């Protein structure tokens, strides 16, 4: 079992210590993976979003102000939640675009049919 993450390890990772960064990334990966899986219930999506969250942490860590460990975890979990929300927001927009396109096709095909009763009303 890995040792619990502490604020000193985070500060060392911020200073550029590769071993500390690796330890922080592994701790974050483990906890975030569990959190995201509980939100998505999809293993492959969890892997993708966990990786995105860890990469965001690595990219932002040098400029992140971390006075205590609770603030760090709060930031990590909020970042993970944002990744999940963004994914589902994009997925919903794609579904809406597909539905709108298919609805337009159905409406156009129905309007162009010769046996459509609406055509009789319009032509009179």
TrEMBL record:
Domain RNA polymerase sigma-70 region: 26-92
GO molecular function list: DNA binding; sigma factor activity
Annotated keywords: DNA-binding, Sigma factor, Transcription, Transcription regulation
GO biological process terms, semicolon-separated: DNA-templated transcription initiation
Alphabetized InterPro entries for the sequence: RNA_pol_sigma-70-like, RNA_pol_sigma70_r2, RNA_pol_sigma_r2
Name of the protein: RNA polymerase sigma-70 region 2 domain-containing protein
Taxonomic source organism: marine sediment metagenome
